[in-house]
Every structure is written in structure tokens, then in C-alpha cells.
Here is the input.
Amino acid sequence: AQSVAQPEDQVNVAEGNPLTVKCTYSVSGNPYLFWYVQYPNRGLQFLLKYITGDNLVKGSYGFEAEFNKSQTSFHLKKPSALVSDSALYFCAVRDGNTGNQFYFGTGTSLTVIP
Amino acid sequence: ETGVTQSPTHLIKTRGQQVTLRCSSQSGHNTVSWYQQALGQGPQFIFQYYREEENGRGNFPPRFSGLQFPNYSSELNVNALELDDSALYLCASSLYWGDEQYFGPGTRLTVT
Here is the structure.
């Protein structure tokens, strides 16, 4: 069965420190992986995706994510956190067989402390 | 470029009633997906429409149905509303049915 796990409901990090939001997945076929961010009272915004190629992908707002096939992980990272990065982050995986279903994790609330 | 829009923003319905939610896709996008997001949860895939045809469906009962129009806008219809249907309903459009999605702000449905 396809699934996405975000093991941390809440991540706190000090402003200026590096941040990591974790994601592991289970999917048939080749994984297409995505990160989205949800700000309060706003829809989800696309951050970045991995389809193929370099395991380190770069996205919007200075975020990047590392695909690790052996660990079936796709952790979101940023070298230096900003207070404005505080939001809810969702990892998503595309069904590898049909390609038309997306499975989302339960979300990780990131708080950047000034 | 116009983003994804949804209407209405909020809706209150009574158990057993029917509801229609609407979505306009981003310009140039021919694929629309609908999601249900319960409080504190991630979005759950309901179904996807690609060029006016249903292109995939999640684990939702048949009382959840949809349409996509020639201009690629879409409707989500829910019949015989239940209390558990209370949630944020998100619409997302994409250029390609497997690609990244662009979400609307959602419709908050409350069933009493």
C-alpha cells in the first residue's frame, strides 16, 4: 500500500539554525515525491519535487530535499531557518503505478523561534 | 496568470442535504484533483479529472461525485451529507495529471 509518514508532528528550531523536516514513503514503482507548505488560512503551496536525477533537489524559498532510495526517505532541509518559515509542511508521493493519485503525510508543524 | 479559485469559502449544511463546491483551475491546466482535509490531517485524495474524464479515485463512497467542464473548471458534489463530511475541501490543478499541483484556498464545509 502507498503511504507517507512524517514522524514528527512538531519541529522547533532557532532562527538561523539549519532545519530538517522528515518524510519516509512507501510506494510501488518509481517514486515521485513532493513537498508542500501550508500557511494559516491559505492553500497548500508547492515547494519542490523529485522525479529523477540528482538526489538533492532545490526548491522555493531556499528549501531543498534529499532523496534517499535505500532509506525510502525524502527529508526537507534548509541551511538557515527564518521566522517566516513557520508553517505546516506536507510531504506527498505520487502513486507509482497509475500516477494519478497523490498520498499526503499528516503534516509537520514547523516553528522557527526568533 | 490566475491561480486556482474555489467557491464558496465557507458553507454550513445539515445532515442529509446535498452540496456542490466549485473550482476554477489555473490558466492552462487541464487536470483538477479534489481533496478532503480533516482538522489536523493531511489531504485525502477524492478523485481527479483530466480533460473532462475521471482519471482516478480515492477511497470515497459514490455519494462523492464530480464534473469537469470544457474550460477545465470543476465541481465536487456530495450527496446525503454526514457529520464526518465536515472538513476543508481542496481543489488542485496541474499541467499534467502526475505533476506538481497548485491548490486553491479551499472550501470549509460544516455539517450539523
About this structure: Chain A touches chain B through 25 residues (CB under 8 Å).
